[in-house]
Structures are given as C-alpha cells and as structure tokens.
Design brief:
Blueprint (H helix, E strand, L loop, with lengths): L14 E7 L3 H18 L5 E7 L10 E5 L2 E6 L14 H14 L4 E5 L9 H11 L5 E7 L6 H15 L1 E2 L8 E4 H8 L7 H16 L5 E8 L11 H18 L1 H4 L6 E2 L2 E2 L18 H22 L2 H10 L11 H17 L4 H6 L2 H15 L4 H17 L1 H8 L1
Parallel strand pairs: 1-2, 1-5, 2-4, 6-9, 7-10, 9-11
Antiparallel strand pairs: 3-4, 5-8, 6-8
Helix pairs in contact: 1-3, 2-5, 4-7, 4-14, 6-7, 9-13, 11-14, 11-15
Length: about 400
C-alpha cells in the first residue's frame, strides 16, 4: 500500500467511492455526476472507482464496469452475501461489507462512502472526505453537518451525549452512514466479527465510529455543510425508530463494556474545516416541532406504559416522571440530570433483560418526546445559539452522571 502522496501500486485505484441503493438508478446517476465533478476539481490526475452495490441488480448488470470519465469507472455489484427475507435490496451492512471488499481488491488507498439519498451533496464533499485520507494520512473521517435549529433531535439529545459519555470522544455526528477511511482501516473493519450480528443489521452506522475511535487509526471530522435527505421515503414511526436506535446503542455498550467502564470525561476530535455555527431558523424540509403535541404523547405514555417503566426506572426517576406528567406546559421542564439518569436506567434494564428488549427500547419513545418538548419550551424564545449551548450542557451532564451507570453496571 503506497503512503499518501506516493504512487499507487500498478493497476490499483487511488480512491474507491461507495454507494448502496435499493433499485434507485437516479441516486447512482447523481453520485456519478458529483464524483466526476469532485475528482476533476480536487483530485486531478488521480483515479477513482465508484462501487455501486444493489441487491436488486439483474444478473447481466452485476459485475458490469463502465468508463465514466478519464480515470473513472463505475462498478456494479450485488451484496456478497444474500440479503435477509423481506429486504428491499438496500441492506446497508452487507452492502458496505461488499464495498469494503471490492475497494481492497482494487487496491484503493482510500474509500469514501456516500449516501445516495442525500440531495444536498456537492462535489466539495469528495474533497472534504477524501483529502484527510489521501493527503493527511488519516484513518477514518466522520462528517460534520450544519443542522437546523431542532433538526436531528434524536441524535443530539440521545446518540451524541450517550456515546460521548461512554467512550470519551466529542463527535458532532457519531453516525457513519457517510464516512471515509484508509485502506488499512478498511482491512481492519473487514476482519471484525460484527458483520453477522444484530449490531450490523440494526446499528452498524453507530458501531463504526466506536470501533474506529478505539483503535490506532487517526480519526478526524470534516465539515460538509447542510444534510438534506430525499423526501420520497415516508418517515418511520417514532416508536420503532427510537427502539432501533436505542437497541443499537445499548448493544454496542454491552459488547464494548471494557472500552468505556473506566473512561472519565471526553476529548475533542480534530475537525477539518470550520465547525458550523447554529443554522438560522428551522430546516425547511423538517416538519414543525409542536411541543404541545409532544407532551400529549408523553402524558399518554405515562398512562399506558407505567407498568413497564416501573420495571425499568429507578424509583426516584419514575416519581419525577409521574410528577412531570401533571405539570402544565408553561412549567414543564425535563432537566438534563433526570434525562441522563433515565437513559442510563434504560441501558441497565436492557443489560439485565428485565423484559423483552424490544419492549424496553421502544418504551423510551414517550420519554424522548417529553425531553424534546422540554428543549423547545426552554429555548424557543431564545437565540439559535442557545440550542447549541443546551446540547453541550446536556453532554457534560451525561459525563457527570456516568458514575451512576458504572456503579450499577459493576
């Protein structure tokens, strides 16, 4: 493998660019155009293979290689292993495994994974993700997006603070549905035993940053800009969405307990580019957030799920939630400390298997609604920067409350 800046091996490609689809030719065409423009603008003279993986490809299309520009090829492939029954062809974990394998077969020095459903992608993203690997010798690159005021609240109120407190890495967006990595990092990922597990099927995008930050590969973040996703796919119901995310994070915590039990505090992870300030206003594509409606869902959850929560929540935390359900909207605030302890209670209950794990994780959804409503009620009359400050404060509280989790885990 040639070091950054040195000639590649004969016949190898400089950069592999992966895209996984479920029958969407338009997504592939869009990625090809972006790659062509990005390579011409930023990596002139280098070669790239766009590796397109789709489980619905016809027999005569799989394995096809097209010339799409000078030094650029489009490679079509099906996942290396059969997709599970009922999969629409977009099985991401098997698709990614296939991309990684083909990239290594082609001797790529670096790999950039793109999400064909993101419609805000620009040719600049090829540089932002690829340059730290090809020119700076970085092992793994995570994106930093500019988010709307209340965009991505499940990520910001749950994923970010929990993973930061557990593993000690300050990541803006610890979800690798888009990323870049070196050839050596791709070899490492392919060698892991995660690919046939539930984590791979339900939460590989959360596992990747955890796995890479715990190794010797230099990890960085790179600023890409706004993240707007095609609205063609209807949003998933909240309960299953929260359940999937919580189940993935809790399974990762259980699998990697030796990597986080002794971690205290957190450390910044380097960022390429200027970290974005809070986006002004709300994302035009996002549905408006109605805290009153969310509080209806929270209070309904208190009425319907109390027998479940009695087996999950510590008595004091359950009592606080019951009290909150009686508060009028004008006085409703779910504090950072209470939310952190609730999340830790759920993680502990998941580990102890106090009931079916799917029941545990999905029953977190109404409490999450209450936490989002609290954030909106607290900040809606304040400047945009107040939302970012609230998120940072929450992450620090998760760190401060971590001994609560560790003492009960041990």
């Amino acid at each position: 493998m040639a070091p950054p800046g040195e000639p590649k091996e004969c016949g190898a490609t400089d950069l592999a660019i992966g895209v996984i689809t479920g029958g969407s030719a338009a997504a592939v065409d869009s990625v090809v155009k972006i790659v062509r423009d990005g390579m011409a603008a930023h990596f002139g003279g280098l070669t790239a293979d766009v590796i397109h993986v789709d489980g619905t490809l016809a027999d005569d299309r799989a394995g096809q290689v097209e010339e799409i520009g000078e030094g650029l090829r489009l490679v079509h492939a099906r996942p290396s292993s059969p997709l599970p029954p009922g999969d629409d062809g977009s099985g991401w974990s098997e698709g990614l495994r296939t991309v990684l394998g083909l990239a290594r077969e082609r001797g790529a020095r670096g790999l950039v994974m793109l999400n064909g459903e993101i419609i805000s992608m620009t040719p600049e993203w090829i540089r932002c993700l690829g340059e730290p690997v090809l020119s700076e010798g970085r092992g793994f690159v995570l994106p930093v997006y500019q988010r709307g005021r209340y965009e991505g609240t499940l990520t910001q109120l749950f994923v970010v603070p929990l993973l930061r407190a557990l593993f000690g890495h300050q990541l803006w967006y610890p979800i690798a549905d888009e990323f870049a990595c070196s050839g050596e990092a791709a070899d490492f990922l392919l060698a892991q035993d995660v690919w046939t597990t539930d984590i791979a099927r339900q939460g590989l995008e959360f596992w990747l940053p955890v796995a890479m930050c715990g190794q010797a590969f230099p990890v960085v973040q790179s600023v890409l800009g706004p993240r707007a996703v095609s609205s063609q796919r209807p949003p998933a119901p909240l309960g299953p969405t929260v359940g999937r995310v919580a189940g993935a994070l809790f399974a990762i915590a259980e699998r990697h307990e030796t990597a986080w039990l002794d971690v205290r505090g957190s450390e910044p992870v380097p960022v390429f580019g200027v970290p974005p300030g809070p986006a002004s206003g709300t994302n035009a594509r996002a549905a408006p957030i109605d805290p009153e409606r969310m509080l209806v869902g929270f209070r309904q959850g208190v009425r319907d799920l109390l027998p479940i929560w009695e087996r999950i929540l510590a008595p004091d935390d359950l009592g606080d939630m019951l009290a909150l359900s009686e508060y009028p909207s004008s006085e409703f605030r779910m504090g950072d400390r209470l939310w952190a302890r609730v999340v830790y209670d759920f993680l502990l209950a998941y580990r102890a298997r106090v009931m079916y794990r799917s029941h545990i994780t999905q029953s977190l959804a109404p409490l999450y609604l209450g936490r989002v409503a609290s954030l909106v009620l607290e900040t809606r009359l304040r400047p945009d920067a107040a939302v970012a400050q609230s998120m940072e404060r929450l992450a620090r509280v998760f760190e401060d409350e971590k001994p609560y989790l560790v003492d009960r885990w041990r």
